[in-house]
Write a structure and sequence with these properties.
This protein is α+β, with helices and mostly antiparallel strands. The protein has 25 helices and 17 strands. Helices cover 50% and strands 16% of the residues. The chain has a four-stranded antiparallel β-sheet. It has a four-stranded antiparallel β-sheet with strand order 8-7-10-9, with helices on both faces. The protein has a three-stranded antiparallel β-sheet with strand order 2-1-17. α3 crosses α18 (487-511), α4 (83-101) packs antiparallel against α18 (487-511) and α20 (518-527) crosses α24 (633-655). The longest helix has 25 residues, at 487-511.
Length: 669
Amino acid sequence: MNKRLYFILISLLYLVSLHAQDADQIAFTINGKPVYKSELQKAYKKSNENADIKLTIEDFTQSYIELKMNVEEARAQLLDTTTRHKDELEAYRSIIAKPYLTDTISERMYTQKMYNRLIENVEINHFLIPFDKELILPSDTAAVFNKALEIREKITKEGFKENLLEKRSNIANHYLGMESKNGYIGWVAPFILSPKVEDAVYSTPLNEISMPIRTANGYHIIQVLDRRKAIGSAEIEQVMFRFSRIPAPESHIDSVKAIAHKEYNRINSTEDFQTLCDAFSEAYKTGDKGCYFGIVGLDSNLSPEFLTAAFNLENPGDISQPVISDYGFHIIRLLRKIPVPSYEVMRGQLLQKIKSSNRTYDLNKEKRARLYEKMQIKINQDEFSKINKIAETLSPRDSLFTTTIKDDNNTLIVIEGKRDVPVREFARYIDYRQNLLKKNKDDIEMMSVTETLPHNLSTDILQEYFNNFLSIVTLDYIEDSLEDTQPEVKQIMDEFSDGLLLYAVKDKNIWSRSKTDEEGLDRCFKANKKKYKLDNPKYKGIIIFAKDEKSLADAEKIATKEKTIEKILDKIKRLNKDSIVVKIGPGVWEKGENQYIDYKIYGGKKPKALPDLPFFSVVGKEIKTPEDYRDVRTAVEADYQQELEKEWDTYLSNKYKVSMNKSVIESIK
């Protein structure tokens, strides 16, 4: 490719400013089509910014004209309609669209909100009225909610007394986690409780009791007892009483718990804990590490119960009561507290924590709200109500769900009054989510909008599916409309398209042709035959590999008799009619370039035979001057390409009339 045109292409890919054509002067026209001063000036400025050798405006303008003529010809040859061109444009659009689709404002606001919670711990009481099955229908929630209201009323009157609280087994606590615990929880921090419960913890006034909060596990009631400045992280030691197997049976949990509490009750001093620590170190061979655990904080991959116990320790040397985890019971000792870093320090880590937790659901909810504020999105509530009615008796995760959806051609969503989304597209999305769950739940993370909050109420599941689907179709619409709504994107895409078309038209008419046009190469060789030389003598011929001596002899006879490689190949195919008995390799080789030629012609070392075709020979002759273009193909291809370049420039110049406004061009600095 012409180096100047490459230079132009590179510069085009980085131009992002628009030219104001209304008040612009025309720099030149191509068949009457104008190119304005501002466009030429910006391209010229950008090209010289990165160039080792600065071009004059006159030279640059000539290159720019060549570019524009090539692009016009590419369109004339319909190269802008090819599948390859469209696919490359689509791939590039996806890349440049990302900044326009990323809502950094919502991320920043949500991260700040979570940081504000992070610098405060809240002391709470808690009660859970659990659902008694995994999948919940709306009719199932009424009885549990009424029970939750009764318990809240008792708690309001009598407080979180022991006799009000239903006892849950150790095994239930073990598998459901902290939120199965009834009564005093202690101090909690963000990311320890489920989002809805956490929201209530940080919004409920001091000493008040919340209304029932529904999550996937059931209805929760919390009471806020106190608030304090948060512990950022804690450096701790621990002694662990391990379960012999995981998951542990309930009887084993109880026995390990009894041992852990017995040892805890014996600790009356630092020396007592150290004695227990030494025994732990000896039993588990921890060596010099002893029972040192390390620093735990926001990014620690530990159970909420363990983290809460560690954070609840106030002074260095304080020791926790035994706390359960998947692996056993732990007694934790605080070595030191580490303050919460500043927001600027924690922002990236905090955002990553949000995106990798069930807080993603809330973050995406806020992103959707901001997005829908900017756009006109209408939801056909009648159609959604029909689908929601199905979810009252059948889970959207059930494969039968979409088979019961009717009127799937009806419009469900209208975006900006320009795109109608029918019910059937949402039904297909539900099927897609069902298939993901069947294959691998982790695959859901690959979706463009990830929803990680667990749902078990059928109508909540449907709403989450719909929210995600609405986000996807809206973002698709925004991406598809970028060139209409963002003028700079249209300019970037036009410039990228021009670069692709430049390459495509030159490749089709010059570069690929100079390598594949056998007639043209032959004509070029004959016209310039005297200029082509061989640096050294070469052997020109065919290497033959055969399965047996007869096949080798037959192939040698064909290669000797026939004059063209095409006829030789045709007759070799007949030898290989039933199975491969012969293979040939035509070529031109200098001494030292091919081991088979070296052995047969120049007395070199005998090469190793091919396993399936052990017999070989060569047929041909040594040449000192080239006989046809194949003997000096690289040189002929280079000459033929130059010839095609000149013909191409002449063709464009004759087809496209250029009119330049020299005074405008010369005014460009």
